[in-house]
Design a protein that fits this description.
The chain has about 325 residues and is α/β, with parallel strands linked by helices. About 45% of the residues lie in helices and about 15% in strands.
C-alpha cells in the first residue's frame, strides 16, 4: 500500500500537522525537522495529494512565470533557476511568453489567475496602471520593472550602463551612441538616464529598436551616420546584429567602432569578436523572485525592492578610439 501522511509522521517522530506544513509551507518548519521529514517521505515513497491539499489549503502550489520573449537567451537562465528553486519548495511553475505584446500579457495573466498562487512578471510590457489593476486578482512579483508599492527584483542596468560608458571613455571614445530597446521599456529608460548623467560624453540616442539581432542590423546605417565611435546596445542580441550590420558596410569592430552589449548571453561569448557586455544576474533574480513571491502568497504583498548588482565583462568588441 502507498505510504500515508501518518506513516511519515510516525517514522519522523513528528505530528501529522508538521508533515503537512513541511509540504505546504516549508518555511514555517524548522530546517532540521524539514530535512528529516523530507528524507523519510522519500524513503517511504510518500507523495502528497495535490488536489486534496489544494482543497484543504486553498493553494494550487503552482506559480506563473511570464516573460516578454522566451526565444531571447536572456530569459532561459532565469526560468531554469526559478523552476528549480520553486520545485525545491514543492511548487510547479507554468511558463508563458507574451512575444513582447502587452495585450497577450494581460490575457495570460487573466488566464493564469485561477490556476496559480502567484505570478512572476519578467520585463513586462504592460503599463504600470494595468499591472496595478491586475494584481487585485493574484499576487505579483515584478522582475526588471519598477512598479510603485509592488514586490520587485531589479538588476541594476543603470549601474551597468555607467560602467560600460566609463569603459568606452577610458578608451578615448567621446561620441557614444545608445541603442534603446522597445518603446516604453523600463530598461531603456534606466540606461538613458544613467548615460545622460555622464560627464564628457557626446551622447546620441537611437531608437526605439526591436530587442533582437534584426533590430541591431536595422540600425547599423544610423550608427555609422551618427559619427559615434562607441556604442552601448540595449542587449546582446542588438549588439550582435549591429556588429554584423557594420561588417556588411565595411566597418570594423573594434577597429572603427567599439560595441558593448547587455546581458552576457552565451552567443556573445562565442561570436567574433567576443562581445564586451554588462553581465546581468539572471539566475539569482529568478531564485529571489520565487522567494519574494512565496512570501507574498503567505503573508500578503509587501513593497519589497531588491536591487542586484551588475558588472562589466571586457572582451574583444571594444578598443581604443580611432584617431
Amino acid at each position: 500500500m502507498a505510504a500515508t501522511i501518518r506513516d511519515v509522521a510516525q517514522a519522523s517522530g513528528v505530528h501529522v500537522s508538521t508533515v503537512s506544513r513541511t509540504f505546504s509551507a516549508p518555511h514555517l518548519v524548522n530546517a532540521e525537522t524539514r530535512t528529516r521529514v523530507l528524507a523519510v517521505a522519500e524513503n517511504l515513497g510518500y507523495r502528497p495529494n495535490r488536489a486534496a491539499r489544494a482543497l484543504t489549503t486553498g493553494r494550487t502550489h503552482n506559480l506563473g512565470l511570464i516573460v516578454a520573449d522566451i526565444s531571447n537567451p536572456f530569459f532561459p537562465p532565469l526560468i531554469k533557476a526559478a523552476q528549480a528553486h520553486a520545485r525545491a519548495r514543492d511548487y510547479h511553475v507554468f511558463v508563458a511568453d507574451t512575444d513582447e505584446d502587452p495585450q497577450v500579457e494581460e490575457e495570460l495573466i487573466q488566464t493564469l489567475t485561477k490556476q496559480v498562487d502567484g505570478v512572476l512578471l519578467c520585463s513586462p510590457r504592460l503599463s504600470n496602471r494595468a499591472i496595478e489593476r491586475l494584481r487585485a486578482d493574484v499576487p505579483f512579483v515584478v522582475v526588471n520593472r519598477r512598479v510603485k508599492g509592488m514586490p520587485t527584483i531589479l538588476m541594476d542596468v543603470g549601474q551597468g550602463a555607467r560602467l560600460a560608458i566609463e569603459h568606452l571613455t577610458r578608451l578615448g571614445h567621446r561620441r557614444i551612441a545608445l541603442l534603446s530597446g522597445p518603446g516604453g521599456s523600463w530598461t531603456s529608460g534606466e540606461m538613458r538616464e544613467a548615460a545622460a548623467a555622464m560627464d564628457g560624453v557626446d551622447l546620441v540616442i537611437l531608437g526605439p529598436n526591436a530587442p533582437t539581432e534584426q533590430g541591431g542590423l536595422a540600425v547599423a546605417a544610423e550608427v555609422i551616420a551618427s559619427g559615434a565611435t562607441g556604442v552601448l546596445a540595449y542587449n546582446d542580441l542588438v549588439a550582435i546584429g549591429l556588429i554584423e550590420g557594420l561588417y556588411e558596410r565595411g566597418v570594423r569592430v573594434p577597429g572603427d567602432i567599439s560595441v558593448v552589449g547587455v546581458d552576457d548571453i552565451v552567443s556573445g561569448r562565442l561570436n567574433r569578436p567576443k562581445l564586451t557586455t554588462v553581465a546581468m544576474p539572471t539566475a539569482a533574480a529568478g531564485r529571489m523572485a520565487v522567494d519574494l513571491l512565496l512570501q507574498s502568497v503567505d503573508d500578503g504583498a509587501t513593497p519589497t525592492l531588491i536591487t542586484l548588482e551588475t558588472g562589466l565583462v571586457v572582451r574583444e568588441s571594444t578598443g581604443e578610439a580611432r584617431s
